[in-house]
Amino acid sequence: MSKVQEHFKIRMTENGFLHHEKVLTVDTMNPNVKRVEYAVRGPIVQRAVQIEKELKEGVEKPFKEVIKANIGDCHAMGQKPITFFRQVLALCSYPELLEDNKFPEDVKNRARCILQACGGGSIGAYSASQGIEFIRHDVAHYIERRDGGIPCNPDNIYLTTGASDGIVTMLKLLVSGEGTSRTGVMISIPQYPLYSAALAELAAVQINYYLDEEKCWSLDVSELRRALQAARQHCKPRVLCIINPGNPTGQVQSRQCIEDVIQFAAEENLFLMADEVYQDNVYAEGCQFHSFKKVLFEMGPKYSDRVELASFHSTSKCYMGECGFRGGYMEVVNLDPDVKVQLTKLVSVRLCPPVSGQALLDLVVKPPQKDEPSYGSFIKERSHTLEMLAEKAKMTQEILNEVPGITCNPVQGAMYCFPRIQLPPKAIAEAKEKGQVPDMFYCMKLLEEKGICLVPGSGFGQRDGTFHFRITILPPTEKLKIVLAKIKEFHQSFTEQYS
Ligand SMILES: Cc1ncc(COP(=O)(O)O)c(C=O)c1O
Predict the structure, then answer these.
(1) 409-425 confidence digits (pLDDT tens)
(2) Are 296 and 304 in contact (CB under 8 A)?
(3) Which residues line ligand 1 (CB under 6 A)?
(4) CATH classification of the domain holding 171
(5) Distance from the alpha carbon of residue 163 to the mean position of ligand 1, in angstroms
(6) Rounded Cα–Cα distance for residues 281 and 314 (Å)
(7) Engineering a disulfide at 248: which of 94, 173, 291, 470 sits with its beta carbon 3.0 to 4.6 angstroms away?
(8) Which domain holds residue 25?
(9) How many Å lie between the centroid of ligand 1 and the Cα of residue 315?
(10) Cα–chain-centroid distance for residue 54?
């Protein structure tokens, strides 16, 4: 090998081609991607999958199955789909079924309506990039009904590939500048890690504001102000993200709090992003979902003519839980018309969100009406799912609070509980020795000993010196009871072992 070849690490292969080192290596790849973390599908889940394989191969474990309570994937956890939704989607996918008299007339009408709006009458065709027009109109009507008649312009609706896609798209538009003028984005801690991951990928500056665990994970404007002032030293804060109801914290924001946040955003000239994917998941007495859009308009033109807002919803959560269809929408308010052109261009590049997801979204925003044959079963199924979730939310909080060393706030909404765990100093020291974050060490041990898969609090962010885990309330009641009993047993033995 010549010196030049050696210098450039060029080798001659057997068939005579010059063989270079790989073009794409961890050293040459996009460094922003390397900074991305997503704990919800992190090392604990990878180990859980491995353990499942080991169990199948007959490896002896102190448990027979791994129970995954780590991810907000409703159907994977046994939640049943709404029959009406699946019937319409079945007909849309296989229109020959329109001739089958097993399907009610309203199901057939809805399927025909969707198919007529599709290119060539097939949901296999691309749609308009912003989404099928009549579905955007149905979304706008849904928002108007939800918000007590406050108008919604269908031109401000963008159908998306789940809410994730809308959130990342908006962040892409918002992130700019270099050095101290780089865009800063305020996100809650604990947060849903899509936000930190997207900010890392876009090389935006993450500005943490802490939710108040002592006050049921509520949001205090003085904390927003503190975080904003500190961040102004090193970036240009331009965006405030809110998740309501909260993931992983399960709180539901009061109307007053939303008003305070909007006022803060107006005063500080921040773009508001309201993640409202859990808008139907509200369980606690006295709690109610208020959309940012509604509160903004109720505050009058001083705010509603000015504050820029993007809000997001999805088919993945609530009583639908249809995560795999990747349906969703965002509504933009007060977006600069020139930016709107850019947004429309940006979404065009990716052609369109899945048309099956758009069809499902249409059914969510326009479910069967009282005089239609599917109304009864729709209401029954929806109420059943939401009642079960409410029951499990209460049960989870009650059982976990019985365990010495575990405390948790009420699960007012969403689908998660984020309890605080006391870890003995010896356990913290052993975790550190192993190079693990203490709550990761705890969750990994829980998985190995009991077969329960949770996500460590560190994956969502938490105040220094505090430890948590996130558990979903999605497993069926009997399974959830087993999960909670095992956590209880584990926490007690873990505490004894390290005391
Ligand atoms: C707060 C929040 N926002 C957005 C999403 C993304 O949902 P999807 O992209 O499936 O609509 C999730 C999913 O768990 C979530 O919890």
Answers:
(1) 999 999 999 999 999 99
(2) yes
(3) 72, 162-164, 192, 194, 243, 247, 275, 277, 314, 316, 323, 328
(4) 3.40.640.10
(5) 6
(6) 12
(7) 470
(8) 3-32
(9) 9
(10) 30
